[in-house]
Sequence to fold (439 residues):
Amino acid sequence: MKILHRLLIVVSLCLVALFISPTLAAAPIPPIDPFTNYSNKRDLVVIISDLHLGADLDYAELNDNTKPLEDFLEKVRVSPNINELVIAGDLVDEWFVPANIDTYRGKDQASFVKRVAATNKEVFDAFNRIIRDGNIKVTYIPGNHDIGVTAQQIESVLPGITQARDNIQGLGTYSPADLPHIAIEHGHRYNFFCAPDPISNQYVAPGTIMPPGYFFTRIAALHVQQQCKTPGDTIPTVIPNSSGDKSQDLLYEYWKNWQWTLGIFPITNKFDEKIIVTNVNGFTGNYAVNDLLPFQSIHGGAIDVNLYKGIQDTWKERQKINHVAIDIPTDHAIKYVADPNELDNQAVIQYFTNPNSDKRIVIFGHTHVAKIIASKNSAGKKTIYANSGTWIDHNPNNTTMNFLVISPQSSNPSSQTTVKLYNFQGEIVTQMAEESLRF
Fold:
């Protein structure tokens, strides 16, 4: 009996070892390879956005993630199945610069773009290797943080790159070759604070298209640099006036956005200090926070503002200039200016429920919130909206190092066009979401 008992113990221990031993357990799951379609066909489209490459690493939003980005781009370069790499905006960042810094260091925008390329040499080298190889088409679409950067300036640092631009500076919508039912754009044209504004401020900055989000970002960057917790000044109170004037009501809502901004991103400076150094996109002066804040000379009286005077009355015209298909009411645009979900909703409104649109897959960047959402268009057909996320170092409450891969359908009737969202944090590829449809 003792011998039998010992044999049973040995067998039991062997069985336990069989189930828990890493060498005897089930084979490990192989790492995900998003850059292969397991064929000899080169048809994958990879989309990234919101790299925010800056000229000075002391305050640039992408620094720690530079090396992973280089490694990612090398994986793209050597893939035998990728046909195109699309950069969907905010490649070069001339917005996230602390307010008191001269963005161009006394020079011009062309020299600034070259300084960005020099500061991020390894990343630009990686892009240029892909372009020079000639196997993968590289396409750039402008975003709001590179809204004023010209095609010639991008070409100067990425020679041979394809650029998808509208006939107005700072915007572009792109459909990859043989994929006409896909639309890729940055998404800022639908945002009151970030869409090009060729109407406001012409009397102080002729030719400018800078929207108020530019100044908001300069202040936010100063807040980050100062690590300010206690504001150095108090926002003057503005209350709705009793005139019942719609324009005044809209300007009050615009003031509330600035109130929220300065509450979230306090700075140590007084609001009358001329701390915002411009010399960018038509602006030449130095400005104070008070130049941006709507104000009342009489409590409860008329509301006015120095910069962006009348902006609440020109949104409809601005949308027309910026080729917005479906009008976004001004009060709605101002109210939801800081809501990232609003851009997701605009994908549906501008494309999927728009009877004049034939797009079934729409991809935006801009919000830094990577996601895929399936819905249906006005004809009842499945649609896919995807956001390509970002690569900045710190993206609170969200992932970073995101990218999308589109795998086009084949002639096989059962084949579908697939959109997959991935994450590259820790240089480990993780699939976040996936949706498919057939055109």
Summary: The first strand starts at residue 44 and ends at 48. Residues 212-313 form one domain.
